[in-house]
Amino acid sequence: MRLSNAVLAIPIIVFAAMAVGMLGSSVLTAVIVIGFIFTPIVSRGLRTPVMVESLKSYVTLAKLRGDSDFYIMFVEILTNILGPLVVEATVRFSYGIFLSATLSFLGLGLQPPSPDWGLAIADGRTYIQTAPWIVLFPALALASLVVSVNLVAENIRAAIHSV
Q1: Structure-derived torsion over alpha carbons of residues 58, 59, 60, 66, reported in degrees to the nearest 10
Q2: What domain count does the chain have?
Q3: Computed from CA positions of residues 153, 20, 118, 113, in that sequence, does the dihedral angle turn out positive or negative?
Q4: Cβ contacts of residue 135 below 8 Å, gap of 6+?
Q5: For a disulfide at 40, which of 4, 73, 86, 103, Cβ 3.0-4.6 Å?
Q6: What would the pLDDT profile of 38-74 be if each residue is shown by its tens digit?
C-alpha cells in the first residue's frame, strides 16, 4: 500500500503526461499508462471489502476445512465482493476513457489520423464559435459512452445482488 500511496501522490494527468512523454504516444502506451495509474486506486478501493470478508466465519470455516488460499480467495471472498468489484471496475473504466480523451485533447495521446473523440474535440475547438456541433457531437458521444457503461454496470450489480 505504501507504493500505491506514492503513485497516488502525483496528480493523474501530470503522471500520465510524464509517462506518455517518456514512452511516446501509442495505443499500447495509453493502455499501459492508464492501467498503471488506476491499479493502485482499484487495489486501495477493494482492500476494505476484502478485509471485511476475510474476517467472516465462512472464511475461517474454509481455512479449518483445509481449503487452499487460492480457493478461499477466488471462490469464497471474490464471489462476495463482486458488487463492489463491478462498481470499481466500471468507474475506473469510465475514468480511463476520460483520461484517454484528455491526453488526446492535449496532444499527448493518440495522434492523427487515429479516430479519437479527444482529437475530434481538439480539432473542432477552433470552430466552436461558427460551428459548435463539431465539438458537441464527439463530446456527446464520449459522455453517452460513459453513462451507458455506468448504466450497464448498475444493472449487473443489481443482478448480482438479486441472486
Answers
A1: 110
A2: 1
A3: negative
A4: 120, 121, 124, 125, 127, 128
A5: 4
A6: 988 888 889 999 999 999 999 999 999 999 999 999 9
Q: Are 59 and 76 in contact (CB under 8 A)?
A: yes
Q: How many CB atoms lie within 10 A of CB 159?
A: 10
Range of the domain at 62: 2-162
pLDDT in tens, 71-119: 999 998 998 898 888 888 888 999 999 998 998 888 888 777 888 888 8
The phi and psi torsions of 111 (rounded to 5 degrees) equal -110, 155
**How far apart (Å, rounded) are the C-alpha atoms in residues 43 and 4?**
8
Residues 6+ apart with CB under 8 A from 123: 112, 134
CATH number at residue 117: 1.10.3720.10
Residue with C-alpha cell 459548435? Answer: 132
Q: Structure pTM?
A: 0.81
CA atoms of 83 and 70, how far apart (whole Å): 20
142 CB-near residues (< 8 Å, 6+ apart) = 97, 98, 101, 117, 118, 121
CA separation for the pair 162, 159 (Å, rounded): 5
